[in-house]
Amino acid sequence: MNVDTQHRIADINQNYAERYGFHDPEDYFLKAPKGISHELVEMISRKKNEPQWMSDIRHQALDIFLAKPMPTWGDNAMLGEIDFANIHYYIKPKGEQTSDWNEVPEQIKKTFDRLGIPEAERKFLAGVTAQYESEVVYHSIRADLEKLGVLFMDMDSGLREHPEVVRKYFGTVIPTRDNKFSALNTAAWSGGSFIYVPKGVKVDVPLQAYFRINAENMGQFERTLIIADEGSSVHYIEGCTAPTYSSDSLHSAVVELIAMKGARIRYTTIQNWSTNVFNLVTKRAHAHEDAVVEWVDGNLGSKLTMKYPAIVLKGERAHGEVLSIAFAGHGQHQDAGAKMIHAAPNTTSRIVSKSISKDDGRSSYRGLVKIAKGAHGCRTSVECDALLIGEHARSDTYPTMDIAESDVNVEHEARVSKVGEEQLFYLQSRGLDQDKARLMIVNGFIEPFVKELPMEYAVELNRLIELEMEGSVG
Amino acid sequence: MASTEHGAAPAVRRPGLTVEDIAAISTLMGESPALYASRRAAADRYATVADPDRVTHLWRFTDPGLLLPADVTARAAVAPHEAPHTAGAAARVLMLAGLRPLIAVDLRALAVGLVVKPLAEADEELANLGDRRGAAGRDPEEGLFQALNGAAWNTGLYVGVPRGVILTDPVHVVVDAAGGSVLPRLVVDLGEGAQAVVVEEHTGGDAGSRVVAASELHAGAGSRLRHVLVQTWQEGVCGHLTARTRAGRDADVLTVFASFGGERSKVELATDLAGEGARSEMIGVVMGAGRQRFDHHTRHRHLAGRTWSNIDFKAVADASARSSYTGLIRIEQDARGSEAYQENRNLLLSGSSRADSIPELEILNQDVSCSHGATVAPVDPGQVFYLQSRGLDPDEALRLVVRGFLEKTLSSLPEDLRERLEGLVGTRLAALQGRAS
């Protein structure tokens, strides 16, 4: 990163309220009352005019959600703060979905303009989806991709226009009963992206989705399904923000990826929810023979994030990669990690996790590497690095290695440190002031992550980090 | 979000323990009212403590029910004919369930003040320890097995090394797993500046033996404690061993653990670095064969500033053996300037051997240096091939590779310990035969 960019990074997320934390006056087509019930699920399903089978799946999922206890592991204290009765499970903004930016309702348009969407699209994206509360309000895709047969639309349209594909794959990677929050999402899902890339088609520029929560006590449950057919490739990027409120919102997505033989999917998330959002997300991919799946996962915002992107390596020689960075500031707990399930021989995986905890923030790496019996010749490595800034910062590492096959190579390494005195001293001796020197060290620390991001996001991330770091004297 | 769903596990079948049972054990041990009261308190915990939580990492790999004895009520045992002798040791002790420990103390050690006596008679010493114990509060990992031992221990020993006393020879304690339910309890107290080696050797037994052991060790300020926990049970023995050590200011603690025998064993080792400048090192070696299951847990808790800890744990698994490891390093907020390291390496010798490793870190303060690493890998065929090309047969080559894997760990041990562990490793390696290259 050049010095110029560094200068622009002067004050990250310190001004979250101003940049992302604002909210629009509430003006909705429909705002469901708080709480979840079979009546509400029925209402969502009817509003969407869904086929009966989907409605059945929703009702079954609700029963599972209600029956399942809360997880007993993780940050129980914070999880216990979630008041499921105090959440709006469905809000439909005014106006219909459009592919013409000018048709988006004025207020929402202003919001997304302020957030830089679709400015980003004009610059370098192949397609954009913008979701506001429960529904996608804007959607576009480059015409040439559409001609090649690439499907990129919101999940509701996907279900309407390609019900056979959705029915075939929905819930096959993440079953409803996988966990309490996947069940909740399945019952209440709305919006999200549906992507299908035909055989051999390589989408060379990223597709993007932007998720925005506006109302207080909102629950957003988008559902995303990405299928990359044989030999195809796609890069999907999502970003998310919300207003800052004094009471909590809940974001609980389910994301399913299927990479067929020889396909390649990269899924990038820059999560910057306000610090009153519980972010409890289930993300999992199936990688078939010779497929490559990468999760690039940045967690900057939210109150509590619990997210462990998983890759099931189902076919021989499949490769999985998770590259994640977490930044936990005041009052935040980033409980993030990765799961690699080696279910076929000669599969390989790599997890690189970087975390920065500042003030009383807490970052936890929680991961699983599982090698099934018979999955010989696998290689996997896990690398965790944590940086602590401040007296009350906390870092945890909870890796699990479950290896049922002997002909494999498994490595795990973790390091925790503070910003090194020698490094600081060296940089200061070269004329940098302490803040700049510290920033440079942090930037060096997250560099392997940032270089995997598209330029726009890399710059944004650096700017965010710079803001977060401002005035910190460790 | 991760799924750690387990079906509702059936309740663990605990051995029954009535007030009368406890009174009978207490009478058999011949202990004082104070010790009886602490037994009763432990019995209350035993009655109310939850089953080990299989969802947490601590109990992820072992079914607690398989380690519990069926019956822990009082049963007197007959003393063996041969009493221990003191050659080469400051003291030798033989512990058998239902019996006062058989103790032989070297006269020179006795002269400098070494105290080795049945726990039942160590009222005064335990009262003296009481205050220091209280300061640490209840151990966060205190659970069913620790409570059971506290309530129903049926052989107990106290070892005290007074302030400033330096013992050159070890205190060697042998716990025989013979006799069904064996619940040994060991308390070691090193005074300020004292130095001692305590070897706790669990051996013997048969398919009916179940051992639930608990040891509590206190290393006073500036003391130097070496605790060696060796498990060489006969086939079929199952058991659970706990050792909790508290290191005071500038204390230097070395815990060596070596597990070779039995069918199923779980070992929980925890050292609290309670005083500023305390140091703790844990060195462990496990070699499993047949269908053996080993489950080791280590914990280093840094409670004070400038404390240092290191763990080096190596496991070798042959045939269908499985070694599981969970380790936690926790650095509390007040423990500034601390360093903690942890390394777990696993070598798999056969297609059906297996190893699990969960090295955990919890760091609550920025002024630390901390790292851990873990690996699981098979024997490198390249190494074996190379050695064979130098004229070794496949078995010899494999043995040499295993020795090489353990070398660095074993070489960091004091001479006498290293020789003893190398002997145990050698016995195991001799059994590695007749495999194709």
Summarize the structure in words.
The complex is a heterodimer of chains A (474) and B (437). Chain A has 474 residues and is α/β, with parallel strands linked by helices. In chain A, 26% of the residues lie in helices and 36% in strands. In chain A, the strands form three sheets. In chain A, strands 5, 6, 8, 9, 11, 12, 14, 16, 17, 19, 21 and 23 form a twelve-stranded mixed sheet that branches. Chain A has a ten-stranded mixed sheet with strand order 4-3-7-10-13-15-18-20-22-24. In chain A, strand 3 and strand 4 form a beta hairpin. In chain A, helix 13 runs antiparallel to helix 14 (455-469). Chain A is globular, with a radius of gyration of 21 Å. The two termini of chain A are 22 Å apart. Chain B is α/β, with parallel strands linked by helices and 437 residues long. Helix content of chain B is 23%, strand content 38%. Chain B has eight helices and 20 strands. Chain B has helices at residues 19-29, 33-48, 107-112, 123-136, 144-152, 381-389, 394-411, 415-430; strands at 91-95, 102-105, 115-118, 155-161, 171-176, 181-182, 184-190, 195-204, 210-219, 224-233, 238-247, 252-259, 264-273, 279-288, 293-302, 308-317, 322-331, 338-348, 354-363, 368-378. The chains are: A alpha/beta (474), B alpha/beta (437). At the A-B interface, strand 14, strand 22, strand 23 and strand 24 of A face strand 19 and strand 20 of B.
Q: What is the number of helices of chain A?
A: 14
User: Main interface pair?
Assistant: A-B, 52 and 42 residues
Q: Which stretches of chain B are poorly predicted, pLDDT < 50 over at least 5 residues?
A: 1-7
Helix proportion of chain A: 25-40%
**Alpha-carbon distance between the two ends of chain A:** 22 Å
SS strand fraction of chain A: 35-45%
Average pLDDT level of chain B:
91
Number of strands of chain A: 24
Q: What is the CA-based Rg of chain B, rounded?
A: 21 Å
Beta-strand content of chain B = 35-45%
Q: Describe the sheet with the most strands of chain B.
A: 10 strands, mixed
Mean pLDDT of chain A: 87
Helix and strand succession of chain B?
Answer: HHEEHEHHEEEEEEEEEEEEEEEEEHHH
Compute the number of helices of chain B.
8
- How far apart, in Å, are the first and last alpha carbons of chain B? 44 Å
